[in-house]
Amino acid sequence: MSLIAGLLAGILFFSLLSEQLQRSAITLPIFFTALGYGMTQIPDTSIAALSDHGMLLTLTEATWVLVLFSDASHVRLRDLWRSAAYPARMLLIAMPLAILLGAGVARFMTPEAPWVITLLLAAILAPTDAALAQAVTSSEKVPARLRRSIEVESGLNDGLALPMVLAAAVVAVEVLGVTGAQVPANLGLFTLKQIILGPLAGIAVGWVAARALDLAMTTKSISPAYDGLVFLAAAFLAFAVAGAIGGNGLIAAFVGGLTFGHALRTSTSFISEFMSAEGKLLTMLSFTIFGAAMVPDGLAHASWATVGAAVCFLTIVRMGPVWLSLAGTGLRPREKLFLGWFGPRGLASVLFSLLVLEKFQLPHIEELVACVVLTVILSVVLHGLSARPLASLVKDQENNDA
């Protein structure tokens, strides 16, 4: 059986049993990461079709844009404003603290690695993954304020982390004397443009697309079959426009989805319908290629130090800063722990590690990528297995308190 046939058979199998699998501990990322890695173990078979880093970079970016735009389109601004303090604290306080703590932990675990590499690793692993958190953010068992906090944090932290990743990479280039790296001419100006022009592009594209779709529906000039294509085009147009003017495309996708969902007067149910098919297909392909292209290298470079660092990044490095950042908010201890635990690492960290791998020729890059891969593998498994039980536990405790 060819690898492409195996991939299609995996998609067919998962789709046919999706209702039963959704009630089990086998999540989509777990299944397709395992499928991709399993394909690499087929003897005497080339995996070139599934092990290309460039293909993974493109698919990961496309998947991330759709997930961010889709998730943000369902967030109501009025509800968001009521609980804005939680994600704001996690973004502005917890994330910088996590980067500093993560760099210290990585340095302790791997003392032979230069400090600039451990700082870069911590920045790459700072953003959380909306795709891996969907089992929580889509569950009605989880209180709305917690779901919105996870959605907003995962939607914005990758855009905020990208300048930090590039800054750490530039510092590493200077400190380690690396030549031939693609470095922004003015990092400060680059960062300002990323965090200012990205949201502006998202607002403009999201508002125009929503107004145009409302007009098309009112005049009945659009067929219902094309609603999803409007969503698709708007998501990637926000990303493309932001990139063209120097803004951050990922922030643009999230802000564009937020604007689109708020400005659209008709139902946004077609977005969920689109993401339940085409969006899931992209996610399946991304995690399959991740399993084939990066998991073998990550496991090959695994050591007790890298595994220990990965565990720390998912626990104390994430949960400690989140707990501190939420002090004085009135949240219960278990709610702080819940928000701290559900900071899964996934496609965003994979995307950033691939960008660094492509643009910078840094020493120890293999160990850095291995640590990222191990963290993502553990996150895929542990957050996938714990999502439903912890969502039910939070709901039960909420009912008991009420």
Structural class, please?
A: mainly alpha
Number of domains: 1
The main sheet comes to: none
Fraction in helix:
over 70%
The topology string of helices and strands comes to HHHHHHHHHHHHHHHHHHH
Return residue spans where pLDDT drops below 50 for at least 5 consecutive residues: none
Shape: globular
**End-to-end distance:** 56 Å
Percent of residues in beta strands:
under 5%
Care to count the β-strands?
Answer: 0
Mind telling me which CATH architecture this is? Answer: Up-down Bundle
CATH topology: Na+/H+ antiporter like fold
Number of helices: 19
Question: How does this model look, in words?
Answer:
Helices cover 77% and strands 0% of the residues. The mean pLDDT is 83. The chain is built from 19 helices and no strands. It has helices at residues 3-16, 18-22, 28-40, 53-73, 77-82, 85-109, 115-124, 134-137, 144-176, 187-218, 227-245, 249-263, 269-293, 295-300, 304-314, 316-325, 333-341, 347-359, 365-401. The protein is mostly helical. Helix 3 (28-40) packs parallel to helix 13 and helix 10 (187-218) runs antiparallel to helix 11 (227-245). The protein has one domain (3-401): Na+/H+ antiporter like fold (Up-down Bundle), CATH 1.20.1530.20.
